[in-house]
Every structure is written in C-alpha cells, then in structure tokens.
Amino acid sequence: MKKTLALFLALAMAASLTACGGGGTSAATTAAAPAETQAAAAGETQAAAAPAEAAPAADASSLPEPAMGPDTLTFIQNLDPGTWQPSTDDEQGHARTNALIYDSLFRYSKDKVLEGALCESWEWDDDSHLRMHLRQGVKFSNGTDFTAEDVVWFIKYVHETNLPNSHFFIIDPDDIVQEDDYTVILGTKYPCATLPNHLASDECGIPSKKAFEEYNGDYLNPDCAVGTGPYKLVSYDQGDKAVLTANEYSWREGTPVIKDLVIRFMSSYESIATEAKTRTYDVVVDANTREFDQIDAMDGVHVVYGQTAKTEYLLLNCKKAPMDDPKVREAFARAIDVNACVRLAYGSSGNPAQAFIVPGIPGFNVETYQKYYGAGHDVEAAKALLAEAGYPNGLDLEISVISANTQHCDMAEAMQAQVAEAGINLSINKMESGPLREYIDGGNHHMCINAFTAQTMEADGFLAQVQPGTATLNRIGYENQDFFDTYEKGCGTLDADERSKVWEECCEMLMKDYAMVPLNHKVLGAIVRDDIEGFWWAPDYEEIYLYELSRK
Questions:
Q1: Using an 8 Å Cβ cutoff, are 519 and 449 in contact?
Q2: In the beta sheet, which residues pair with residue 107?
Q3: pLDDT averaged over the chain?
Q4: Fold equal for 75-251 and 307-523
Q5: Would you say residue 551 has pLDDT above 70?
Q6: What DSSP designation does 19 have?
Q7: What value does the mean pLDDT take over residues 95-104?
Q8: What 3-state class would DSSP assign to 547?
Q9: pLDDT confidence of residue 87
Q10: What's the CATH architecture for 307-523?
C-alpha cells in the first residue's frame, strides 16, 4: 500500500513520542502542522523520525522498461554539482553525488548509530585530540592505497583554500599528527565531543592526494575525481548527466549492487515531475512537491517520504541596514504568515516550523519557539515595531532567492504580499545558485531563504555552520561573542543531556535577536519505481545510498 504524507507525518511524530525523554514541551503553534501531526505532537517530543523505507510493491508488471535498461540504475536530481571536488559546496545535492565516489571517515547506520567508515575505530586522547585508526587495505578506484596521508592532506587543503566545509573547520590544521600510515590524531580548536558526528557528513569525503597532484586538481577529469567510494566517475556532461560505474576496489563487499549508474541533472522541478511520471527512472528527487499526490497514485511508482534534520529559514542580515536594527527584524518576522507561506509553496508536504530546529533533535524547545514566534502573523505589531525603529511610513527591503527553487520563490512572493499590509515594500531578487551564493556570502542581501541541517543529529550540526570562519555566517551577519562562547561550551560538554541544554541556549540567542525565522521542517520525498528494492532515507534524511539498491 502507498503511504500518504499525512499518515507519514503522524507516524513520524508518534515515533518521537515513544523514544527517549527530554527536549522541549509541545504546545499549540500558529504555524500549525496538519491535524494528524498536531494530535501526535500533543505530548513531549524527543527523537527525529525513524528512516523511511519503501514498502514492497504489490505488482510491478505494469511498469515500462527502465530508462537505461535493467542493468543500469537511473537517478534524477535538481542540483548539478558543477565539480566533483568534495567540500566545495554545502548544498546537499552536491554532497549526495560526491558521496557516491568519496567515503567519509564516519557515517550513520539505519538505526541512527554512528559507525566507522574510512575510520574503523577511534578514541579521545584528551578532550581536544581525537585518535582515529583508519581502515587498512582500502584502495582508491585507481588501485592506489588509501592512507593517513590522504586524510591529513585534504583536511589541511580545505583550510588553506577556505572551502566551505564547516565540519573540518573545527579541526586545528596545525595540530594534526600522522602517527603512521593508518593512525591520525586530530587536534580541535576547542573541545568538541561531537567531532566524529561532524565527520560523518558527506561534505567530508576523502579524495586521493596522488590523483589530485597528478592531474593538477582538475576535478572535472574522471582521472582526478578519485575516491574509495562504491562508484567511480566515467564521464560528466555539465548541465545534463553524469555516468558512473562500479569501483572494482570498493571495500564494501557486494556494493554497488547495480554496476552502472546514470545521474540526470534538471533545473526545473516541474520538468523533474514530468520525467517521474514516465515511470522509467528508478529514483527521482526534487520533483515539484505539489504533484506528489498525483504521482503517488500512479501504478508502478510510489513516493517515499522522510522527515529530514533540515529546517528552512528566513535569514535576516544583521549587518545590512536597515536590518541591523533588531526592531526591523522583529517587525518583518511579525508581518509574515509562516503557515500560509509554507502551505502555498509545498502543499501537503509542507511542515511549518514548530520549533527553531526539527523537534526531536537535541537542542529543540517548542516553548522557547512559542515565546518569540508564537504570536504569528500580526500586522499591527509589525507596524508598531517599525514606528519605534523610525519607519512610521514603512520601508523598502529586498529578499534574495535561487531562481530555480520554485518553493523558495513561492514563499518570497507570499511574503511580498503579506508584509505590504505593514507598509513594507519587498522586492524579490532572483538569481542562479552560484551567483546568489557569492552575493549573500558577501553580505550584500537584506534577507534570503536558506536551509541548515543538524547533520550531527544534535543542534550543533546546524550551529557549527554559523560560527566564525564559516562562509555561511555572513548570511546572517551575526556578531554575538556570547553566542560563539556558548557554542564552544556546548562542544566541550560530554554529558549529552547537559549539552542539549546548552544548544537550547544557543538557539534562543538567535531567536531573541531575530537573526533567523524558522519556516519549514523539511520533508523530502523520493519517487521510486516499484521494482527497486533497498531504498531508505539516511538518519538525517538527505543522503541516499544508491549503491545499496537492487532491482527485482
């Protein structure tokens, strides 16, 4: 049977209720979730939803032939990575494709347990030195040996070139020791108990130093894009597709199950939905969410939902006038209707924010969220705040969004209409992903819509991305030393319950200063053919391990 989204959301929240205790206490929220979700959320919420798996199909006989034949797996996503160099982009679509070629040091299992990948075992020498024992006998896809030298080189390279990998920036590049070919000691800039969790990110894949040097860092060349992952790159047509094949040296026995893989990149969510309806592609993500119900009703395919650890935010640039005035930021937060924005953009798959981060992830607190955002859409309060800030007749502002992101554009247009009631003339700046990233990382924007994932399955997975030294900090222009110091205090707190309380403090600081407005706790959906087995959303619900999939 096909699982409807409403049922999925209700079951996901119910799973939270029966997990472990702690976290915030649920309350009624203006940005209300569907009725089924509200009912399930009436009590205390703790754990994020369990990984969603595809239910076995009753009959796949009505399916057309696979797009590339039965021996090739096909996958469609929106984002074209542009390069196959790891750590160059914090967008999940980039990390997802790179994870097919490069392994990280750690990863999460289906049941949300941190496990070793390239790092086989580990221990702490003290509170700021992590000793990693690397997996021996692993080879890169070109047949050369993977060793500690590759790990040390790449972490230092990320620092030297200032690549946007917030996880590696916890590490002190001058305090890394290669003890032998398979032992590395990582010194951190401050005590960080969750460093292994950070290094499970797909952004932290380890490439071959030798291939990098031999091919001058040209990661568009398959001979340079060399990792230890289950696949290796055969060809890449930017803006169209990538062809991968099995890495014959893969250390994961029996993977990939399907030898060949073709990934198509399509910029339009509507076009992706159209391709999904042909039912010839094995796995499709990033389709227009408003067409999910229609697609899920088709024979031969089904939609698999996963509650991610990601929240989409309205980021308010605290350095850019007039947004440098906290009253103006709060006024804008009061003037928008989050529930209406999310419902317009995402339809039934929208999950309007109920906390500052996804409920169930340590550091969330629904009561604190209610304190700052519970009043919801209040035009008169927004007008009063603007008058106090010196703008009794309103003001002009700009919101910047990715032009190809239909949902973000829809939310921006909804906000444009809503804030006009409070006297705010909001213009929409639509740009392509690359130029927009440069624009907002340069601090040129008033506000933008961006998502952050708690990749460590704690709030610090998100909080680490807005710390000094990260490019993403410029997106909110936030300068609060107490916030930075409290974050470091949390990193050094070994007790998980105490650490969660510190994360709550950090999140409240961002709320109190209205640096960010949580919009949507992202629910992802993948359209999967009924003859494909083994699909599951990883614990942070953004990774897809295509190498584990098989065909009936």
A1: yes
A2: 115
A3: 87
A4: no
A5: yes
A6: S
A7: 91
A8: helix
A9: 83
A10: Roll (3.10)
